[in-house]
Amino acid sequence: xxxxxxxxxxxxxxxxxxxxxxxxxxxxxxxxxxxxxxxxxxxxxxxxxxxxxxxxxxxxxxxxxxxxxxxxxxxxxxxxxxxxxxxxxxxxxxxxxxxxxxxxxxxxxxxxxxxxxxxxxxxxxxxxxxxxxxxxxxxxxxxxxxxxxxxxxxxxxx
Length: 158
Prior knowledge:
The chain is mainly alpha-helical.
């Protein structure tokens, strides 16, 4: 394999793992991709703040806010174990990449596993999004969609 192909493979493989890790499993603050386990109480607190922020933006009722918090907490609880699996996959990828011999079968197996995990996470996030959409009115969804469209980097103040 020539140098360009090796670099391209490394970039794609690393990008896949980094993308899965940072998007699906990152928690913000000190809980980025390489951080340790997420404290459930801290995760719930962050979810409560996030939902409260969304509720203000969408002028959601207290009942809607409570339902949204339950949806988000349930999804986060189900997705939390995937974070450790992503950390382990990163460790395996580094090990495979730095090995004296290229083990294409092991690399492909790791890639397929990560795609399966990402698909599962994507399905769960999509379910939570649809559940949240059913809680909100069309006008509230439109308000939140417009807010999201104005901010390339996601939900933040400013």
